Amino acid sequence: MTLLSLQRSTVAKTLWNSRTRVFSSKSTGLSVDVEHFTAGWNNAGGDNAAANGKCSVQTFNKISPSGLSRFPESYYKVEAAESASGPANVLLLRSHKLQESEVDVTVRAIARCGAGTNNIPVARMTQLGIPVFNTPGANANAVKELILCGMLLGSRRIVDGVNHMKSLGEKGLARERVEKDKAMFGGREIHGKTLAVVGLGHIGSLTARDATALGMKVTGYDPGLSVMSALKLPRDMELKDSIASAVANADYISINIPYIKKSPQEGGTHGIIGKEVISHFKKDAVLLNFARGELVDSHAMKAFLDAGDGRYVCDFPDDELWNHPNAILLPHLGASTYEAEDEAASMAADTLRDYIEHGEIRNSVNFPTTALEERHDQVVRVTVVNENLPGVLAKITDVCAKAGMNIAQQINQSKGDIAYNVIDLNASNKPMDLKDFQRDMTMIEGVLSTRIIFGAPGVGFARNVNGQYVV
Ligand SMILES: NC(=O)c1ccc[n+]([C@@H]2O[C@H](COP(=O)([O-])OP(=O)(O)OC[C@H]3O[C@@H](n4cnc5c(N)ncnc54)[C@H](O)[C@@H]3O)[C@@H](O)[C@H]2O)c1
């Protein structure tokens, strides 16, 4: 059953539950009357989580406690989704494959602690007007450190040496043989060598910066280099205009680009490090792949390793190369550090709080980035999520005018099929009853949901579910 059909059936069973809350702010003296959203089909009349005005954050997977501690207890109730006491307002997850049926009608945002969001039905969430956030770059330092480690592993036969020590030790020969055998495991230094970095985003730019600090010359290639990443690059780094020219004289090559399941000719990156690119490698080049296994054509890589003294270091499985003497394949460990998990959870929590408490949007994969001016003390913020259709904006402004609301500032952003509006209303000294206003705003054709951001973050949310006002 889809979310909308679930919603319809739930509405029909009149399980929706709402109450009115009047919030006043001590600092401003404002008093604003809004609906308190408590509905949800998992709720079936119970409204424990929402009744106290707290925003219910529900988690799938184990989320780092340092991230969860970013939600102040006075305003947020954090609990595991599987044992939650009521409907969720916000979902936080890592690798859990989210089903549409797990997204309550009360949910207003979802965040993934990590970069990829293919475990979330993003397109469907967009149709429902729910922003999906991620945490790009939160694990960049962890991956960069493993790349630096990979560079050293690929330079000296450290792994072979450790394995040799173990086998000597098992035979009781470690002391006797180890000095004699060390010549088998010689290698080279990275200082003064050239590293080519393909993809200069969060991970690539840090790798380039730190390789320079280790005394390496760095070249790179990235046709979509962002300003933020460019600022992190070492000054004397040489930027090239193709992967082939970047890798041509490199002793080490680090690839840090996304995997897109199409051939490079079709705009994808599947097997992008194939025969042609590899033909430009030096015979003893070390390829570091801590991005995705499928970026490298294993047959072509095997031919390269068989022919010369090159190395392949990677943290993805490969049925063809796992046992090759010149390949070092690790488990997928790039982001597996305590710090990366803490950073991802903290970033996700901060991003969610900015959205819930201020209406700001950053790091969303389906909603437009919306940076907002600081709010004036005497305003009430209203946000509107709508389908990106002509004429909706005019109707939104019209509802404000008809309600006699004076707009202090307004922003309208769009991304694909979705548009997002933030309207700051000048508040009067009189108590403001915004219930009718919110209903009119929400029921505009094309509007999916509205929020009145005032007082406790768990309140003031309404949805237009196929023409039904759900609050
Ligand atoms: N090993 C791990 O555990 C691990 C962890 C995190 C990320 N990753 C992988 O690392 C990749 C990079 O992560 P990030 O956080 O730096 O991503 P990012 O989005 O910050 O950077 C990717 C960069 O690659 C560039 N790019 C895209 N296609 C390119 C191409 N054909 N040639 C050159 N540059 C190209 C983009 O312009 C962008 O600047 C991710 O896509 C992910 O697959 C692996």
Describe the model:
With 471 residues, the chain is of the alpha/beta class. The chain has two domains: 3-137 and 339-470, 3-Layer(aba) Sandwich (Rossmann fold), CATH 3.40.50; 141-329, 3-Layer(aba) Sandwich (Rossmann fold). It has 15 helices and 21 strands. The chain has a seven-stranded parallel beta sheet with strand order 10-9-8-11-12-13-14. Strands 16-17-15-19-20-21 form a six-stranded antiparallel beta sheet, with helices on both faces. A five-stranded parallel beta sheet has the order 4-3-5-6-7. α5 (140-153) packs across α8 (202-213). The site of nicotinamide-adenine-dinucleotide (NAD) has 32 residues, from α5 and α8.
CATH superfamily heading of the largest domain: NAD(P)-binding Rossmann-like Domain
**CATH classification, class level of the largest domain:** Alpha Beta
The CATH architecture classification of the largest domain is 3-Layer(aba) Sandwich
- The rough form would be described as elongated
Return the domain count. Answer: 2
Low-confidence stretches: 1-26, 36-52
Distance between the termini: 22 Å
Q: Which radius of gyration do the C-alpha atoms yield? A: 27 Å
Spatial strand order of the main sheet = 10-9-8-11-12-13-14
The name of the CATH topology of the largest domain is Rossmann fold
Strand proportion, as a percent range, falls in 15-25%
Largest beta sheet, briefly? 7 strands, parallel
Bound molecules: nicotinamide-adenine-dinucleotide
